[in-house]
Amino acid sequence: MTPERNRRLPALLFDMDGTLLDSIGLIVESAVYAFDGREGPRPTRDEWQALIGTPLDAMLARWATDAADAAFLKGRYRHFQITNHDGFVRLYDGVDETLRALHAAGHPLAIVSSKLDEGIRRSMDYFRLTPLFDAIVGIDHTTRHKPHPEPVEFALARLGVRELDDSVVAATLGTVLKYREDHDKVTEQGISQLIKQAFDKGLLSG
Fold it and tell me: For a FRET experiment, which of 17, 91, 164, 194 has its CA 20 to 30 Å from that of 182?
């Protein structure tokens, strides 16, 4: 990516689960499978879904009885997720064409997710979208994780974006980088419509 591309158009950062990718069912069913493997405290489906976007270790720690139990649960969770990935996940309507149009227009694009880099690439490779992203930032890239700003700052550095005023940062976080509370909005309106609204409001103008 050239410096000219960075300067010409604003960079767009996306979460993956619940924003680009409808993987909510896979995440919830992975938890059900994990906790069905042993006796002990367990979350309801709604409790687990409400935590989507939180690092997996932090999610499991809420119900794990000790470190060995957490490791057991994580192993079962990962096994189900890897085995069943392709049958559960889908792109939200408009994601493929929107990302391709943004990339073609010259916008630097990044994913910032609480998943491992390997997991992000597995999903993006499956839909042949990986080449569209100039940076992919997973939980294994930073010491501190969302909602701490370090992953966003890491992605911006990867994109060569170093100077953003407060209004642009706020617009990026609130309009493009989606957290779990925006899942319903993405589902109802579609990511392409949300981005169009951001452009219409002047939040993403060049």
Answer: 164
